[in-house]
Amino acid sequence: MRQLFWILGLVALPLIAGEKTRILEDLGPYSYEVDYFSEESFRHLTYDQGLVERTFLEPGYRNIYQRYLAYGVKAQLESSRSPSSEAREFVQQSFTYPVPQHLGIIAFKRGELSATCPKVVAAAKALGSQTIAYYHPVHFSGGNSKSYKMPRGPTYGKHWRFETTLHFSQSEFEACLDLIDREKLRLHYVPHLEGVKAMVDSGTEEDWRLVSGIPIDDHYFHHGFGPLLTYLTKRPKAFTSAPLSLTLAAELDPMVFSYARKVRAGQAWLEAELKRLRRPAARYYLNTNGDFFHGKDLTAERGHDCSELKRLLAGLDGLTPSMYGDKGHFEKSDGGHLSLPKTIDAYRARFRERLNELCPKAPEVIEVMASKPLGFGEFALDPETQSYADVLKDAQSLLFVQYWTHGRWDHLGVLEPGSAKARRELLKESTPLRGKTAR
Question: Are strands 160-163 and 401-403 parallel, antiparallel or unpaired?
Answer without folding.
Answer: unpaired
